[in-house]
Amino acid sequence: MSSVLIVGAGPTGLTLACELARRGTAVRIVERSPEPQRGSRGKGLNARSLEVFEGMGILDRLQAFGRDDLFFRKYRDGEAVSDTDPFEKFAPAPGTPYVRGLLIAQWNVERVLRDRLAEWGVRVEFGTELTGFEQAGDVVTATLADGERIEVSYLVGCDGGRSGIRKALPITFEGRTLQEQTMVIGDVEAEGLSQELWHQWIDADGGIMLCPLPGSSVFQLQASPERDAAGLRVEASLESFQRLFDRHARIPGIKLTNPAWISTYHVNERIADRFRVGRVLLAGDAAHVHSIAGGLGMNTGIQDAYNLGWKLALAAAGRAGDGLVDTYEEERLPIAAWTIDTSGELWRAVSRSIRTAGSGTEGVITPDILGLRLGYRWGSLAVERDARTDDAPLRAGDRAPDAPLRDADGAAVRLFEIFSGTHFTLLGFGAASAAALRESTERHGDSVWSYLIGSGPGALDDFEGHAAREYGVTGDALVLVRPDGHIALTARAGDARAVHDYLGSLRG
Ligand SMILES: Cc1cc2nc3c(=O)[nH]c(=O)nc-3n(C[C@H](O)[C@H](O)[C@H](O)COP(=O)(O)OP(=O)(O)OC[C@H]3O[C@@H](n4cnc5c(N)ncnc54)[C@H](O)[C@@H]3O)c2cc1C
Description:
Bound molecules: flavin-adenine dinucleotide
Largest sheet: 8 strands, mixed
Distance between the termini: 24 Å
CATH architecture of the largest domain: 3-Layer(bba) Sandwich
Mean pLDDT: 94
């Protein structure tokens, strides 16, 4: 019996499948489409997703398909008025090495994930549709379109905004569809147009934007829909794209060609009231949909999967209680609600700004969309045993920051490098934590990797004090970091018991 069946091979399902496969969990992933999706859809990975992919060991592969240096070029009435670097206000820092979004077509994100998954021996089963499922006790029986029945411990619906799995569960998908907020969208080629800029022609009566997709000759086109003489929306087509381009860009001789994907996009703001019913879970668009302003859709799904993966792997292996899986909804549902509000505000702000010739699209590049401030302080997995105050720079549940260190040979090593993998990481700040680190290694073996941080023998040298500052440590202390890069526990340096209690509590 497979432990987990994932339905849907978009970015969410693929990230989850990788997280399970690399932990040795028996997983199948089925996808209704006969082949990978061809439409670009999401085209940016935010800073937090880049950290996630560093943790999964595939950041370099994704970077090879993307770029982070594209300027926005704005035009009014056909004339170029400004070139701007949308991320110019953000600079990397020791705790936050990635701040610029990586422009990358969703099909390339999916391709990298599929390739990585295949290296663990798991292949996406294309042309395979889930048609039903039932739960009894701790077994879910799923039925596929060809009649095959599969028994699993968990079924995860990563089956997109129209999720059939969600609809089959007693789950509401509260929210609204904003029919009046509509955009036409598609992938086209435009020979003669520079691929070095994201072109944005915005006029009083509408506009069109063409964003080059790295590593291809394709632009993602977004535009306000064409209207006919009666003010009715004209169906999106290559011809209507060309008319919109000619009206706003006014560059004779450039022809839009090879439309690989054409769609009409309505803003939907909806959230599932539960992310779990029994042994069936929802993740990604199946659980929440929102405006594309800020490019948070694909990123939120990837980060859902990263939160769920380690929990499901431990529970499916019987190494954690099923209660650990409950913390997925506890942590991610509030993040989804926040994302809907945030992207909605960004959508309204950018729409206003475009109408009034304000800052326009770079108005959506705010600290919020980097995803670096999101954490789970409220969750039951966030434990503090060292009396941190509310104003401490870092609290249990927060994202664990990076910091540069040096190993015993003086070689550079970053915290993110030692976090990368499937383990918990125990950081012991100062010599007084050495005994607790030793004890943890004896008791927990490979599941917890322990490091002494400081300046003495055997320690990773915090030579500029960045690690202590980022982690809000003034004396000696213990910090336990979860496999998904969030702070599990903060404790006093000698409190080995706190670490054992914490890990014991997960076994539930
Ligand atoms: C027009 C448009 C533009 C977008 N632009 C952006 C953007 O600029 N930035 C951004 O971050 N996001 C954008 N998004 C959102 C982003 O594409 C989604 O958030 C992302 O695809 C969600 O990933 P997912 O894996 O959760 O779901 P999906 O990518 O939707 O994948 C779900 C998969 O499940 C499969 N499936 C469904 N039912 C079954 C079944 N019964 N059996 C088997 N398989 C099934 C589907 O075929 C599909 O492949 C856009 C979305 C749209 C539609």
